[in-house]
Batch of 3 targets.
Target 1
Amino acid sequence: MDVTDFYALQRGMAPLSTGQQGMLTVYDLGLLRLPSGILGACDPFANLMYPQKIALVPGDYPVRVTVADVSPEQDGSHLREAYLSLVISETDPVTVEAAPGPDGPPPPGYFFTVPVDAGTVAFVDADAMLRCMPDPSTWYEGLFDSNDANSWFSLMDAERPYPAGTANIVMPLAPNGENVVLSHSGWGDGHYWLLQTKDGAGNLTGIHIDLAVAGRFEEEPDDSGILSTDPPVPLPAKKSWLKRLLGQ
């Protein structure tokens, strides 16, 4: 993938997958605590227990979302999340490539993807999730949609302290603030590329979920968990119980 057609963490006008130009804005979503160093990327409402995993140095990392104005008038009336990014370095990236999995990088020309079935993506410490979340049978009514102001749906709907459609949530059993950072997934459900960027010395600068909003996309995705070198077309959100969460 050519870094010149990659727009994560960039501000200003950029080409969109709709064929038009759109304004990009970057929002800070706080820090992700990563004590184990095993980053998990997933749809938190569908696959929190089975994230794509990437090994990093343990620590706390900034997470940012790049949002695109896809409205024809460029008046802010239609916004879509274009990238969810874990920032490792503030150095400008020189290369962008497929992020590796637990056993190394995918075959040349292929990319691991984050499967999305609930219109949301997230970063989490994959090891911390196993010890900081309660019984999964309680998640939906007890955490996600409890009608409480601190339910995950409510926190994502809120416009503060992070933009609506995003949240930074400490897991219920976390002893040291272990958390999940969430964002709506651009166009909705589908499979989205998991990418990494590097600086000129080959050092990692970030891990990114590309939500197929910014850049040029032409080919249909498959359902195999990896995609060919041609990026996926943007996918519409499914009509499901997450219509309210998606604002549709």
Target 2
Amino acid sequence: MIQKKRLELILEELKMRGTLSLKEIVTLTGSSRDTARRDIVKLAQNNAIDRTYGGISLPNTFSRLDEYLERTEDLSAEKDILAKTASNLVKDNSHIFLDISTTVSCIPRHIRPYENVIATTNSLDITDQLLRNTKCKTKILGGTVDPIKRNVVGTKPMLELDSFIFDVAFMSAAGITTSGIYYAYDEDIDFKKKIRKQSKLVVLLIDNTKIGLSHNYKGLDFEDIDFLVVESRLPDDLERTISDSNVSIINSKWVQT
């Protein structure tokens, strides 16, 4: 299929769905991953799409899901407060997991100087923060490095998780509604569920822009998390749904005051 035809096909599908992952573009066009990437570059050069950290979207559809290093500057004060609040759940002699997230990446700055905490992550940037700011014994999962999301991906980190039992896992999400917890890309789902399976407690950190927002894939139910850390009061229906699922809601404003 010539490039013009592929681009037309991609844009037609994108108009119907709003977003497409790289994997979905490969399946749609029957092309290689390298060819799909070149098609994405062409569309981006013509301002026909926005590039996200796993594929493409209609312009402005995922304005807050751009490349990881750019997102670290977005809402940094609020994210730091959420992370500081969540860090109180880290105890000495515990094994914690820090999932890839610009909010979770703030947690290492606030972990108390415990000598016997083991911290595992799949994020290059969180690994760096752990080494710079904590006394934790730091582990990073093995695998292929994704240069955009700056984390390790593939089957190897999934298999490696079988070797760990975490006392607490810290995670974030692309959106949260009364229906559940959402992620932008299908390749995230199995990994999040695996973390849940290997963890005694799961702590979800959600900034205000994610509340009431759904995305392409529902990854977790509220029964899958134990604590929800937020920065402000939730809508009544969402708070009721979460509380009915026996999730403890921690409001960072109440904690800070």
Target 3
Amino acid sequence: MKVLMINGSPHPNGCTATALNEVSETLHRHGIETEILYLGNKPIAGCIACMKCFETGHCFRDDAVKDIQDRLAEFDAIILGSPVYYSQPTGQITSFCQRLFFCKEGEMAGKLGASVVSCRRGGASATFEQLNQYFTISNMPVVSSQYWNSVHGFTPEDVRKDEEGLQTMRSLGENMAWLLKSMEIAKQNGLEKPIYEQRLRTHFIQ
């Protein structure tokens, strides 16, 4: 079992990384492997709706998005992490997810999803909700915690003082570990994944 954790902060070891590491340590205690992907501090191109990915199975741009699209089968769950920028996720993770999910929505189905956000003061709930939209449109069960998955602080040192926030991260890790193990047991006992109808895509004028 393996979880992909995406750090959408421009700071590799900042507040968002502190939160993700807390979740990661909990997963490791349950024998679950994690991989943290740092998106970097340079722009990531957004989706231009060229539709080439429908032909090739991956985005035409040769970057981190294409790499993860080609490796999706490795991961049983995805955690998106971002700081709050004007009550939204960062531009890096937004562009990354729009391109990743647009092409691979079908392959996302059945994987677990969760979001983690960090903020100095406000905007956490709005950012949390926006990140979760990628999961709920892709047939991905969303893993919850004891509170909305956020930590508060201006620096990693501040976040380490946020006892409730860090406990929320650990509870998220516990819930994700339990669900991953449950899914593995179901698989071993022949319980099939949901079978979906062919996707309908209608316009409101029809």
